[in-house]
Amino acid sequence: MKSLKAQNHPLSDTQYELQLLESQETGIPFSEKLAESGLYPLVPTQIEILQINLGKMCNQVCKHCHVDAGPDRKEIMNQETMMECLEVISKHDIGTIDLTGGAPEMNPHFRWFVEEIRRIKPDAKIIVRCNLTIILANPKFHDLPEFFKNHQIEVVSSLPYFTAIKTDSQRGEGVFEKSIKALQMLNAAGYGQENSGLMLNLVYNPAGAFLPGSQEGLEAEFKRRLGSQYSISFNSLFTITNLPISRFLEYLLRSGNYQSYMEKLIEAYNPIAAANVMCRNTISVGWDGYLYDCDFNQMLELRVSCTTSQHIKDWSLESLNNREIVINQHCYGCTAGAGSSCGGATA
Amino acid sequence: MKTYYDPEDLKKFGKIGEFQKSMADKFFAYYGEVFKEGALTAREKSLIALAVAHAIQCPYCIDAYTVDSMEKGCDEEQMMEAVHVAAAIRGGASLVHSTQMMNKVKEISI
């Protein structure tokens, strides 16, 4: 399967995506819903998390990927931009550095970057969003569990289900088996084991046009099934709602589920989740250094609204703290039901 | 095309109080209480509801509890097994009455 970009698919054009979202028939504007909850305009609380996208290159081509990542995507962060990120990290009190992609480990400067972050901020929480299969993709990645351990990295990994058929239908043939092996390698290094201090969290997102159920209930089921069948342990399960953009939007349109999915998101709007959306305490950095309110806005090329601080090299904490967060109809994905963020449910 | 069942009507379920509010309010309060986590998990209750939906052949309930079961993390195999439980009970309910037929046959036969 090729990325939408490689296919020259209309949905690889972000302007087209935005027009589609805005022209939705039953779409109550997200701004109106926020206003009803007293949250419009949406503004930041405090920047606590810097999420850095190291590139769109990935060894997998997942059907729901909002990044439209894959082996054919060559956009990756260069060392100069990484140094600009390090400059910001060193100067500001940002407690969490969240590294994502694509497969962030495929960036040739990945290990250097992690070592530098750890050197600059010995106490920071560093998250790597590891797709698991990368660990087995090439012998040069086999030692990643030890590398993560040596730098006290928190590993967050997607596993949409505890069976092969559902996992592979979303993430590609053979992904489940490799993911299980990778999880066992991480467990062997101490990850997800009681009292090890090495955090291994899994991400569940629905394999279709429905919302995630209770995070607590799904976590219990995942722990029971992965534990009894594969002797795998992990710390927490984060439930994440699929946002109607990029490849998931393509799936919704192709399968005839777009209208009903949007209605479901709007109907399930939860003001508590809206107050806790991740864009209020996070800044997302694109592979080319541009700044966004979240990873989804990044993929829609909706840059932060403050024009004086749109790139990491022009970072101004004051401007960013005083900005208005850019919203659109896809934001309903983060406010539906129990809410959704890169750290799971929010309400 | 007009049909007795319209999937759009499922969305109107919450509005049945329009003709009789107090009973509807009591029903929905009870309904919400029933499906909360309890001695049974919400997931187990969803699978029971799916099986019952098939036993009473309610198309609205089948749609609603198929989605609900998937949201609660059930897979296709588990959902189909739940339907087989409903089918076994329905089939068994017919078959167990055959004892009455057998009794009658024996009663009137030489």
Automatic annotation (TrEMBL), chain A:
It comes from the Bacteria. Residues 211-345 form the Arsenosugar biosynthesis radical SAM protein ArsS-like C-terminal domain. GO terms for molecular function: catalytic activity; iron-sulfur cluster binding; metal ion binding. Residues 52-193 form the Radical SAM core domain. Keywords: Iron, Iron-sulfur, Metal-binding, S-adenosyl-L-methionine. This is Radical SAM/Cys-rich protein. Pfam families: DUF3641 (PF12345), Radical_SAM (PF04055). The keyword Cell division does not apply. Its cofactor is [4Fe-4S] cluster. InterPro entries: Aldolase_TIM, ArsS-like_C, rSAM, rSAM_ArsS-like, rSAM_sf. It comes from Cecembia calidifontis.
TrEMBL record, chain B:
Residues 24-100 form the Carboxymuconolactone decarboxylase-like domain. Keywords: Oxidoreductase, Peroxidase. The keyword Oxidoreductase applies. It comes from the Bacteria. SUPFAM superfamilies: AhpD-like. The keyword Nucleus does not apply. One of its GO terms (molecular function) is peroxiredoxin activity. InterPro entries: AhpD-like, AhpD_core, AlkhydPrxdase/COmuclacdeCOase, CMD-like. This is Alkylhydroperoxidase/carboxymuconolactone decarboxylase family protein.
